[in-house]
Amino acid sequence: MTLYQVIKFYLLQGHYTIWESHIMTIVFSSLLATSVSLALSNWTEKIEKRKVEVELREARLRTLQATMHTVQHIVNNFLNCVMLIRFEAEEDGAISKDSLEKLEAKIQEVSKQLVEIGELDDPGNSEEFRKFFPPKK
Question: How far is residue 111's CA from residue 124's CA, in Å, rounded to a whole number?
């Protein structure tokens, strides 16, 4: 404010009354305060917007991680089933009809589970993925 008063005095060469000086100071201070307030408001708004974007990205990442973990679990279970059939084929030289039926059932189950993952109502909710895992004992 001292700098403002010095500039005001030299620009106007002191040709103003004390009341005119006060009015100029009040108007200048009001304009300065309004400008600073608007700048801070915009800055705060940008920070809040970035915060929401970061939270959204984090939620998407958690959803992706839960989805990938679930898909990996389903595929690994299926691969274990295929390995058992492979061991049977290597041991017996053929695959039994019962094993083929189990394989077909497993293929149907995996297909159904993958479709269910694609149709989740709220993939951001990790509780929805629990139905794909056996209950812990």
Answer: 22
